[in-house]
Every structure is written in C-alpha cells, then in structure tokens.
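Entry: NFXL1
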Amino acid sequence: MKEVQCNKVRENQISIECDTTCKEMKQKASELKEAEAKAALEEEKRRQQAELEAFENRLKGRRKKNRKRDEVAVELTLWQKYKYYLFPLCAVVVVVFAWYIARAMD
C-alpha cells in the first residue's frame, strides 16, 4: 500500500478511493446516526405524551371538583333556635303557676 501525506489529501491534491472496510465503517456510522436520531425522536414523543397526559389529568382534576353552590342562609325562628331551652322553661312556669293557684284555693 502506498503512503500518502495528510496535507496533500486535505488540500484535495490526491483523491483516495474507499475500499470495503471504509464503506463498512461509513455504513456503520450512518446506521449509528440513524439509531441516535430515532432514539431522540422516540424520547421526544415520550416526553410530549407525558406532557399531554399531565395536562389532561390537570383538566380532569378541575372537572371533578365539586363547586360549592351559594347557600342561602335561612334565619331560624326563636322557637327553632331555643326549643330545647324554652320547652322545659315553659313547663316549669306552668307547674309553678298551677301550684300557686292550687295553694291559693286552699
């Protein structure tokens, strides 16, 4: 095999023909680049799918929330508020009044 100076090759003074080994190396290099590009594309698709799922989950979460409806405050009557206190008090007053009337008749 004949030795060639690098500077002549760089200056395109000599052209070198590729042999089978060179062609195989070029093919392997191109296959490697294609595999890297395919892996990068797959990773990008996976990342976009994950972002899409996260976005959809956020939207679903918003839909599931039960919105609190404005409740109208209902004013309770005096009897509804204090019935547990007023009923025994009224009973005591009636009993005392009845006892007073019964005492007064004797």
